[in-house]
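Sample pair:
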Amino acid sequence: MKPYRGPPMTLESAAAADLRLRVWCNACGRQIELDPAEQARWYGPETPVPALGKRVVCSKCKKRTPSL
């Protein structure tokens, strides 16, 4: 099977698919699950899921080093 090469998933489409986004901090190891519908209200529904990683900040160590 060929890998998917289309545009990245948006927060809106992730919310419509009823997905949860697991994010972890590369600095301290904290892991959380984000609701894409809630994130879409903050960042806009057309925000690509990979772009969310550049915007979130760890609530434990306050660093911006997440992985999606």
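The chain has a mean pLDDT of 91.
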